[in-house]
């Protein structure tokens, strides 16, 4: 997770690696938290508002480990976390991937157009 400048932006790495200054690592959580669920929680408006209220004031906004550790998350069962993450992943794909979201939106608008066309042309 970025902890300075654009602080609070979570990233999931699928590789082992090292991080440098400006980043915080959250690790060893897999027994209790689904990584995709955690990503969505950390990306949420609630969490971002929490960071905004906790950051150091100064010319550069920074999160530190104490601020990150102070965040409280409500955790449903792992199965429920997976279910929620799957739903949110689907929404994220639709809203951020034009090849997925745009065709679906076009199809929905086409159905809406046909519905209103048929209603308006019945006289």
Features:
123 residues, 54% helix, 0% strand
Task: Provide a descriptive summary of the structure in words.
The chain is mainly α and 123 residues long. The protein has helices at 35-43, 45-54, 65-70, 78-96, 98-120.
Query: How many distinct helices?
Result: 5
- Helix/strand-derived class? mainly alpha
Principal-axis shape: elongated
Mean pLDDT: 82
What value does the Rg take, in angstroms?
20 Å
Low-confidence stretches: none
Question: Separation of termini?
Answer: 60 Å
Helix content: 40-55%
The helix/strand order is HHHHH
- Which oligomeric form is depicted? single chain
Number of beta-strand segments: 0
The biggest beta sheet reads: none
Strand content: under 5%
